[in-house]
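Anyone up for a design puzzle?
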């Protein structure tokens, strides 16, 4: 199916992926006629791949082939979080992300590789880049930053530890986080919430049942980073982004701050997804 977008013609694909543990999911792909690079894009917590298609199509129309996988438990994923089905950062970083990387390489070999993400997806893209230095040649972040409560402005810092404890307790008691009912995240596995809340409380990235120092992996990241910060984003403020970048002292960051996502559209954690032109301009500048 061809998408009618300004710029290069764009082909829309669905790429099936099977991870080593049998987990099945689909990557939404938007591929221009003559791509100059690929971007493997990881979404935010609870956000299915389809919501990033305006962003993917805008980038593809300007020469970047974009692949957006569904996180385990979301959209096309064969898994669903429950009391008997659980996973955390270990499965995402060591099973699902490598499967996505291999699928991109198989689909479009021998092109420059970019990896990136929004919010939690951006954080895990950074960690993965440290774990697998050869998996990409650049990092792109949009509306992302560490969840560490100490990295937030004082107006939010005081209540965040309690929120992390509460969401972790709800997920443990319910067998998963009922994010749709709570108005935060999706139906997330309790393991993901456990690892996420731990990083929010401690300021350090770690994964249960994974004997790898993720903070050390981050310190090894030596890639160019393009980061877009939204001026009205309380979920990933400037201080949160800076704290994430500080974990990668060998990286070379280039930060763009957007005051508006589009004319009359707030530059916040979510609105840029439907109005991606300014974000794409900032990433490609």
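Challenge accepted. My sequence:
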């Amino acid at each position: 199916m061809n998408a009618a977008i300004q710029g290069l013609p764009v082909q829309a694909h669905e790429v099936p992926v099977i991870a080593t543990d049998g987990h099945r999911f689909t990557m939404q792909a938007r591929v221009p006629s003559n791509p100059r690079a690929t971007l493997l894009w990881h979404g935010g917590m609870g956000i299915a791949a389809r919501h990033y298609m305006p962003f993917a199509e805008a980038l593809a129309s300007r020469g970047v082939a974009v692949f957006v996988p569904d996180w385990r438990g979301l959209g096309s994923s064969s898994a669903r979080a429950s009391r008997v089905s659980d996973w955390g950062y270990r499965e995402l970083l060591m099973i699902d992300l490598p499967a996505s990387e291999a699928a991109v390489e198989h689909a479009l070999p021998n092109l420059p590789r970019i990896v990136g993400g929004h919010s939690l997806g951006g954080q895990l893209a950074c960690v993965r880049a440290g774990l697998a230095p050869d998996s990409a040649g650049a990092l792109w972040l949009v509306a992302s930053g560490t969840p560490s409560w100490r990295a937030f402005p004082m107006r939010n810092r005081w209540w965040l530890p309690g929120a992390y404890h509460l969401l972790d307790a709800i997920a443990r008691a319910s067998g998963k986080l009922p994010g749709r009912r709570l108005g935060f995240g999706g139906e997330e596995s309790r393991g993901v919430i456990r690892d996420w809340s731990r990083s929010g409380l401690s300021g350090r990235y770690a994964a249960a049942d994974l004997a790898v120092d993720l903070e050390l992996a981050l310190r090894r990241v030596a890639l160019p980073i393009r980061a877009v910060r939204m001026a009205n984003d309380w979920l990933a403020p400037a201080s949160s982004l800076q704290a994430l970048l500080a974990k990668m002292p060998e990286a070379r960051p280039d930060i763009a701050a957007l005051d508006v996502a589009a004319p009359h559209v707030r530059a916040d954690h979510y609105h840029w997804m439907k109005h991606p032109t300014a974000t794409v301009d900032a990433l490609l500048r």
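A detail worth pointing out: The first strand starts at residue 2 and ends at 3.
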